[in-house]
Design the sequence.
């Protein structure tokens, strides 16, 4: 039914000048309206309120997005599509969310169909990490590049892969779980069940956890002072702040992080020969203290030809990347979503 | 000039029913003529004679390929294109071989232009490992699949990646160096300069080297008997033969090999979510002794959704894979080569 509705509106809607992008996070939902040149003409964010279950979240999302449209002086006829980035796993062809760790009750949620009914515009749904990377390719740090891999370093390591300008989704839309590629089959246990996963060494959480481990084992560090002895308060930022103050142990933790991040990026470069590797997440604030040693680490583990083809750059779109990317995907890959 | 020649002939040639495929190896060159349905209508192989330099190798190759065509009862007008798989690195867009470890004197060799002049048909050149995997996708073990990664386990580990039915070449045509993705940034040194490369653990050579290491360190094994004490004669086959005889140490070496091969394949599955992973090389003769424990190892390191989407299968085309794949690429991706 919904597909029919979407198809019916296609002729009229496909030429409209604006597109809605939505990024569903565990805590907040971010939404934008962009024009076809990726210019943001409106934005809004609001709490997810995931505890209220999928139906509430979806209705509330539609309500907020409609309000944003009106506030921007736009009407229904100005909106061509809506793209949504969602946690997964999901079936991006059908727009069904199979499950989502941080969203209680999301099991086989027909997100595409529900939102098409509520908004009256064709909707495409994709993985949130993929959308964030696509945003950087469409309108951010990797603009214009055709072969890009993106990594978001947070609690875990999220990934997205673009080859020849198109998002890589894989056989059942679960590609780019780069955080769960192993850097040591005898390494740290990951909650995914595997060992030595990239995100066990190169996420923001991993930096904090490595610092905690050493301090528990008696290493002295400014980090302990910064958190007044409360180990639970250690974050990647605490480690970075101690590093900036010349703390020796923080430097060790940081170097270990960079060694593994470098190895993971080297694997991407040797494996996919991208033009750009985009890094997102709070750690990119470290600037040269991150990117200089990281480039050295990656150079040591790659072929000179592939290394020289690849720039490693910080993301540019911050918290809007996912919403902008979701909009970009429904515009540029509307064929995939059947829009 | 050559491009012009190729373009001129395009109208006439593009519809011809057969295509030549050539696979340049360090020792032998294998060539086939296939029809557009991937049926092999002729084949030939001959020594590379690499020591005689690129000009000799290329002229000899053209001579042999022409002789094969005549012998098959075909004439020049029956041949649409010629595809060549070559060692690299290479510029597959321009058909220039930048260098090749096993081919002395191959530096910036204009292989496409030279062969177009000699054969009088449009030529496309690509990486030999990519061609072999493409052959399996076009006509072998992964026929009909759209998302495939292939690995050839030999002296090293060669790789090829197909996404949405197209070969992944990367920013400067050096993608899929899967043998040089790291499984341990503190691991074994590789001759490429990096540490812990996949091929240091999961190639046929690595199996033999691991066995040698242990035996040198005093491990007792049937392997020593099989080679009459000559360590240089140990190959992956020797290890396998001892394994079949119930040799405990051979079992350990084999299990270690499978652990790493499994980790590497798990990384491919979590990273690219393929439908098929094709394994080529002599070790596939081990059959269930390879594929059963390998599947278990991969399952432990992957998400159930991505694991269930992926079949891990032995290659089918043997020594013809590269030549058949080279022909398939110039047929199916003629746009890339400008044919």
Sequence:
């Amino acid at each position: 039914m919904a597909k029919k509705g979407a198809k019916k509106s296609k002729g009229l809607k496909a030429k409209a000048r604006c597109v809605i992008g939505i990024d569903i996070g565990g805590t907040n939902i971010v939404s934008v309206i962009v024009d076809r040149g990726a210019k943001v003409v409106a934005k809004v964010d609001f709490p997810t309120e995931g505890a209220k279950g999928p139906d509430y979240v979806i209705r509330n999302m539609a309500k907020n997005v409609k309000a944003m449209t009106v506030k921007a002086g736009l009407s229904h006829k100005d909106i061509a599509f809506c793209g949504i980035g969602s946690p997964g796993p999901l079936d991006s062809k059908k727009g069904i969310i199979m499950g989502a760790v941080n969203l209680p009750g999301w099991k086989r949620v027909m997100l595409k169909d529900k939102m098409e009914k509520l908004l009256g515009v064709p909707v495409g749904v994709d993985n949130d990490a993929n959308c964030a990377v696509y945003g950087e390719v469409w309108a951010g740090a990797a603009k214009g590049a055709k072969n890009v891999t993106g990594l978001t370093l947070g609690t875990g390591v999220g990934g997205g892969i673009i080859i020849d300008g198109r998002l890589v989704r894989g056989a059942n839309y679960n590609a780019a779980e780069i955080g769960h590629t192993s850097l040591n089959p005898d390494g740290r246990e990951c909650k995914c069940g595997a060992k030595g996963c990239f995100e066990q060494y190169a996420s923001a959480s991993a930096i904090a956890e490595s610092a905690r481990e050493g301090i528990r084992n008696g290493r002295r560090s400014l980090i302990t002072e910064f958190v007044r002895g409360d180990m639970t308060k250690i974050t990647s930022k605490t480690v970075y702040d101690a590093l900036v103050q010349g703390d020796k142990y923080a430097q060790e933790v940081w170097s270990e992080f960079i060694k593994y991040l470098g190895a993971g990026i080297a694997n991407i470069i040797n494996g996919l020969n991208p033009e750009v590797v985009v890094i997102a997440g709070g750690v990119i604030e470290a600037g040269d203290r991150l990117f200089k040693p990281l480039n050295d680490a990656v150079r040591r583990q790659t072929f000179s030809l592939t290394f020289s083809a690849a720039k490693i750059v910080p993301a540019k779109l911050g918290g809007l990347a996912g919403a902008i990317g979701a909009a970009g995907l429904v515009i540029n890959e509307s064929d995939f979503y059947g829009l």
